[in-house]
Amino acid sequence: MKNYLIRVNGNEYEVEVEEISNSKNNSAASSKIVEAPKPNPAPKAAPKPQPKQEVNIPQGAESIEAPMPGTILSINVNEGDEVKAGEVLLILEAMKMENEILSPRDGKVAAMHTEKGASVSTGDKLVSIE
C-alpha cells in the first residue's frame, strides 16, 4: 500500500493505492485505481439584505403597515384620493392568498410607500392616511 496526499480545488485528500502483481506472470503488474471523493461545492454567500429605505410619513398621518411578508398585487388608490373606513387600499399576496389591506378610518391618502409588484416584509409602511 502506498499513501498519497492529493489536493483538489484547495482541498486535501489522503488516498491509498495498492499495487497488485500477477503471481503467474511477475512481469505484468497492474494497479487498482482509487477515486478521490468529490469535494462538496462551496456554499454560496447569502444575499446581502437591502437597507430599509426611510419612509417619510406626513405629520399627523397614520401609516398602514404590511401585516405579513408578501407581494403587492394591486393598488386601488392614489395619493390625494379620499377613502372611507373599510375601503380596500391594496391587495397583498402572501402564501398564495390574496389579502385585502383596508383603510382603518376615513381620510385622504397622504402618501404611497409601495408600488405594484413590490416585495414587502412584515411592518413595512404601505400607505399613509391623514
UniProtKB/TrEMBL annotation:
Biased composition range(s): Low complexity: 22-32
Keywords recorded for this protein, A-Z: Biotin
Pro residues compositional bias, start-end: 38-50
Top-level taxon of the source organism: Bacteria
Pfam families, A to Z: Biotin_lipoyl
InterPro entries referenced in this protein's UniProt entry, alphabetically: Biotin_BS (IPR001882), Biotin_Carboxyl_Carrier/Decarb (IPR050709), Biotin_lipoyl (IPR000089), Single_hybrid_motif (IPR011053)
UniProt xrefs under CDD domains: biotinyl_domain
Limits of the Lipoyl-binding domain: 52-130
Name of the featured protein: Biotin/lipoyl-binding protein
Lineage: Bacteria, Bacillati, Bacillota, Tissierellia, Tissierellales
